[in-house]
Amino acid sequence: MIETDICIIGAGPVGLFSVFECGLLKMRCHLVDYLPQPGGQLTEIYPRKPIYDIPGYPSVLAGELVDNLMKQIEPFKPTFTLGQRVEELKKNEDGSFELITSKNEHIHCKAVVIAAGLGCFEPRKPNARNLELFEGKGVEYMVLNPEDFRNKKVVLAGGGDSALDWAIFLAEVASELTLVHRSREFRGAPDSVEKVFRLSEEGRINLLLDSNISSVNGNGILRSVNIEDKNKEIQTIEADTLIPLFGLSPKLGPIANWGLNIDKNAIEVNTEDYSTNIPGIYAIGDINTYPGKLKLILCGFHEGALMAQSAFKYMYPDQKLSFKYTTVNGINPF
User: Is 95 strand, coil or helix?
Assistant: First the structure.
């Protein structure tokens, strides 16, 4: 059982900044995210994309912004549960909450903050026969621990930055590595594309272009992957692991079943403090909705600041909250 003051569902930029705001009020935070690393969409989908509307930054790369947010909250020592999603949420009689993740991890907290962006990002899956039979038995949709693939025969599929980056990395880890892409052109960074082709020329990556995964095979666990080229010819590749990296699609997921007021896949909130219809549960960032809502990171930062003040009052109704600016002489927020 993990014990914390606030459980933040979603470790994207808004969730991360909320750790800072809560930390200023001496509230401990634990973050849960389905993705294998903090940063949300910024890390998983476009880490190299420049962002122009963050105050104080004429331009900042998405990945750099996440790195800076992580440095900013480091003094408050947040803890993380990554590669899992919250499946169940229960409110106790004393007003506290218990959350249960997809891997049966239990989290007890005094307040809950939903900062899940557009929802729980779920992997886009290839149209391959028998795929779901081998999920968790050789078919994985993300890389949580690269060492799990040490000396294994690995098939990667995809043509974006994530597929290219992991192909380059796993070429040093796997005993055999095959990269399958439906086109002859990649969508990722030119430097990464160049490295993949170089590794292919060196014989360290088996590169199959103009090809798709048609089916997966095995007996209880994955044994091989069938690859179909543009001429409809099938090639069978021995494999211990298949990792399709076709991007992510957002879904509200279990959140829809928690009794919250939902409007068009977004959670309705009170704009005084971004509380929901359930006392002790807040929703900030792209996951919430209210009149005049703008889905901008900087708006999520503002919502996180007001949420933290309200969460403190919910958790400690008898304590006086003394708000101080971090710029006041002699006050160190850390």
Answer: coil
The answer to whether residue 186 is domain-embedded is yes
Domain boundary among 198, 226, 246: 246
Residue 194 domain boundaries: 125-246
Give per-residue pLDDT as tens, 295-321. 999 999 999 999 999 999 999 998 887
Q: Which CATH number does the domain housing residue 275 bear?
A: 3.50.50.60
Is the CA virtual torsion 9, 14, 20, 22 positive or negative?
negative
At 13, the amino acid letter reads: P
Domain termination site, one of 246, 261, 295: 246
Query: Same structural domain for residues 142 and 237?
Result: yes
Q: Which residues contact 64 (CB under 8 A, 6 or more apart)?
A: none
pTM of the predicted structure, to 2 decimals: 0.68
Give the 3-state DSSP-derived string for 47-79, with helices as H, strands as E and coil as C: CCCEECCECCECCEEHHHHHHHHHHHHHHHCCE
Residue 140 predicted with pLDDT over 60: yes
Helix, coil or strand: residue 298: helix
Q: Would you mind telling me the total number of residues written for the chain in this entry?
A: 334
Q: From edge to edge, which strands make up the β-sheet containing 234-238?
A: 211-218, 222-229, 234-238
Strands 248-251 and 241-244: unpaired
- Tokens coding 48: 């190299």
Residue 218 falls inside a structural domain = yes
CA nearest neighbour of 214 among 171, 155, 162, 149: 155
The DSSP string of 183-250 is SSS--S-HHHHHHHHHHHHTTSSEEE-SEEEEEEEESSSEEEEEEEETT--EEEEE-SEEEE---EEE
What total of structural domains would you count in the chain? 2
